[in-house]
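Posting for a labmate who doesn't have an account.
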Amino acid sequence: MSTPRPPAPKRRILLWHVHGSWTTAFVQGGHDYLVPVLPDRGPDGLGRARTWDWPANVREVTPDALRDEPIDVVVLQRPHELELVTRWTGRRPAADIPAVFLEHNAPEPHPVASWHPLAGRDDIALVHVTHFNRLFWDSGRAPVTVIEHGVVDPGDRYTGELPRAAVVVNEPNRRGRMVGTDLVRALSARHPLDLFGMTDGPVGEARLLGDVPQGDMHGELARRRVYLHPMRWTSLGLSLVEAMHLGMPVVAVAATEAVRAIPPEAGVVSAAADELEAGVRYYLADAEAARASGKAARAFALERYGLDRFLGDWDRLLEEVIR
């Protein structure tokens, strides 16, 4: 049995609502979270989530009000937030407010020759969400660490009652091969496949279920027999981690962090298209094998991507930065 994590000092943390699933996990840490809000609730002022369950200590703050807010640390997630912090608070990240920069994405535009926007400075800790991202980004002289994802456990909800594969991809046609849209088209021609997410048109013969409300998504995914992760070049999708927590077996392209995130007993991870199809076919045909792999997936996800480990890692880093 793991030792309970001692409570960290309560801090006032400024961060923008950029990635809803990641932020949902982060704000479970018991601190006071200041989230900028604008009248149009655009990308720089989304405010509190409307489709995720966030605790009451996540507080919306307007840019004008931020000037009078005491802030212990800012978690930056986009390069232009460096300027926003100075303009909205009157204080400079690193110089006047302790700061870290969280990089959610795999390197772009080139997998090994991309210079990170924070690579030229050494006064802001650069946090990657996967070891793959850390290895492939050129982070220059930035102090770098990895804090792997954590998710709020949705529970062991797997039934697999529907012999269909599930995929979660937003805007699959616009994003194309990067997110494996061509693989979804090919597989949907031969196997029943349900596509969740913000869709931008038909994708082969996949059944489009759209952007299901977050409160219903986990239950709907868990009814499908197998989870398909077709991404070629994205950071580790939290929908994959959530599917594993649900107890779903997974079939995934062997790219970016997937080879570390999915143990052999939890599914099929391959760079061969015929092996991916064989994996989907296998689980659709064998409900017992699917359930066994799903149990292994859940056990691994709880250990690697558990919320307590995630929050503990962040508390330790923030205390180091604040000191």
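Reply:
Got it, the structure tokens are right above this. Residues 8 and 316 are 8 Å apart (CA to CA).
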